[in-house]
Amino acid sequence: GQNIDQPTEMTATEGAIVQINCTYQTSGFNGLFWYQQHAGEAPTFLSYNVLDGLEEKGRFSSFLSRSKGYSYLLLKELQMKDSASYLCAVVDSNYQLIWGAGTKLIIKP
Amino acid sequence: GAVVSQHPSWVICKSGTSVKIECRSLDFQATTMFWYRQFPKQSLMLMATSNEGSKATYEQGVEKDKFLINHASLTLSTLTVTSAHPEDSSFYICSNPGGDYNEQFFGPGTRLTVL
What we know:
The structure holds 2 protein chains of 2 kinds. Chain A is mostly beta strands. Chain A is built from no helices and 11 strands. Chain B has no helices and 11 strands. Chain B is globular. At the A-B interface, strand 5 of A face strand 9 and strand 10 of B.
C-alpha cells in the first residue's frame, strides 16, 4: 500500500528553526509537495521537489532524497503566523496525489 | 496562481436535506477539478475527480449517488450532498491543478454541519 508518514505535532519557539520530516512509500514517484494549512482554511502551496536536493524559498526550504523516500520542510526565523498544519503530498506513478496526515506546528513566544 | 472560489463558505442544514456546493475557477479554465473532504484533525481525503463535460471519477468508498458532481462548464463544478446526515458534517474543499508545478489551487472550503 501507499503510505506517507509525518509527525502528528511539533512545538517550536518564535525565532527558532524547525524541521518537519516526511517519509513515503508509494508506487512510483513524480514529485513531492508541501502545503501549509491554517486552522479552518484551505491548504496553500509552499514547495515542490522532484529532484534530490534542497530548494530554498525565503524562510522556507524543502529537501528531497528519492533514494531514502524522505523529505523535510525547514522553517527558519519562526513567526507566530507560522503556526499551522504542514501537509506532505507525493505524486505517484499514476499522477495521483497521496496526502500525509499533516504535522501541526505550534509556535510559542 | 489560479483563483478558486467556493460557495457557500459554511452551511448548516437539517438531516435529510440536500446541499449544493459550488466551486468556481475565476481566472483559469479548469477541465479537471478535485473534491476533497477533511474531518477535524485529519488530512485531506480525495472524494472524486470532476471532469468537464463527462462523468466524475469517484474514489473507492465514496457513494456517487450520495455525492453528485456536475462539471458543466470550464469554470464551474458543483458537489451536491444528497440526503445529508450528521456524519456528512465535514470541511469540503475543491481544487484545480495548475501553475509551474501542476500544484493544487484550493478553494477556501465549505464547512458543512448537518443537524
